[in-house]
Amino acid sequence: MSIASGSGALQATRMQLIAEMLVKSTLGQETQDEKMATLLLPPGPDSLHRFSRESLAAVEQRIAEEEARRTKHYQEDLGDVELPRPRADLEAGKQLPRIFGDIPAGLVGVPLEDFDPFYFKNHRTFIVLNKGKAIFRFSATSALYIFSPFHP
Question: CA separation (Å) from 49 to 13, 116, 145?
Answer without folding.
Answer: 53, 13, 26
